[in-house]
Amino acid sequence: MLTQIINGKILTPNGWLEGGSIILSDSKILEITNSDLPRVGASIVDVKGDYILPGFVAMNIHGGGGCAYKEGTRKAFDIATAAHLKHGATTIFPTIYTAKIDKIYRSAEVCEEILKEGGAPVKGIHVAGPYFNPQMVKSFPGAKNPDKDEYTRILSDISCIKRWDLSPELPGAYDMARVLNWKNIVAAITHTQAEFEVVRDAYEAGFSHVSQLYNAMPGFHKRGEYKYEGTVESVLLIDGMSVEVTADGRHLPGTILRLVYKLKGVERMSLITNALKYAAFDGEVEPDSDIIIEDGVCKLKDQSSLAGSIATMDKVVKVAVDAGIPFEDAVRMASETPAKVMNCFDRVGSLEEGKDADIVLMNKEYQVTGVWQQGVRYVG
Question: How far is CA 299 from CA 118, 142, 293, 314, 348, in A?
């Protein structure tokens, strides 16, 4: 089955292409051409001047539509995924943020079932915890040092883990990063008090990425009368280390987004939602929840800390643009860069012949007007 998308502005790896078309053959991109002449046998889709973009890659995302991925049920996975797919997330790595190992196993079982079926946005899971610095987590009972017997057993049993976040200053963290690297799993820094020497040594041990830059980590600070660099400055100083930012318009101001963009560039900066179950959801927060939604963001009920966002991938692109980042770079940081971080750029993250037919249409107001995921147009 051929689909030909015409009359749009196509973002290719070589820049914008106007007046051309993109041709899909079943689940793949067959051709990107500078001609919009109808292809014989193709179903024509006229997008009336909208942007034609690579599908977004959501790599730090807890849930949506009223369901959290860590619930570990197929229903929760399907509802959360559908909620974000309609906002352009055509590749999703569900985040399992938990101290309970059985929740990792249950979520992985659902993920592996989905992977066997093929064709879904879910491409593996992102584990966060339980190996956190206890001083840097709130409402997270069970934070502890890396347990080699525990994590090696998990990695032996589960094949769909693609990323694991932990605090690098904990005893045994470097060894765990080396094991993750050996298994081609991304080791990411999170919930940390690490200063430069620890961050540098962590990078050399295999920590290649930083989760939610500026959140749950110190910046430049004083101890007594002397000044010290924080995790933030240390990470920004190491050229090869990639970062992600929660670009929901609440976690970080636009000036900080521009600063990170200026220092890290589009190649090392990814946009994430850090979305909780309340993203793309019209319902109410449960009365017994320790979370409240206020000012367009999730907070702990005592208002002592932000707890996550209600953003979708189209929202983080618009927030980045509103902060002064060029639109094409904001799109790349929501598609190409996270695909490279998560080791799936060979299939997704850019519009190129032979890659998955994952496409997002956006109008001039940066609203999603259409989504194809592996060649199937999303309707919902």
Answer: 36, 21, 6, 22, 33
Whether the model pTM is above 0.90: yes
CB 35 within 8 A of CB 6: no
Parallel, antiparallel or unpaired: strands 125-128 and 89-97 = parallel
The CATH architecture that domain 2-52+365-377 belongs to is: Roll (2.30)
pLDDT of residue 380: 76
Q: What is the pLDDT of residues 223-264, one digit of tens each?
A: 999 999 999 999 999 999 999 999 999 999 999 999 999 999
pLDDT tens-digit series, residues 4-23: 999 999 999 999 999 999 99
CATH of domain 55-349: 3.20.20.140
Q: Where are the domains of the chain?
A: 2-52+365-377, 55-349
What count of residues does the chain have? 380
Whether the domain at 2-52+365-377 and the domain at 55-349 fall into the same CATH topology:
no
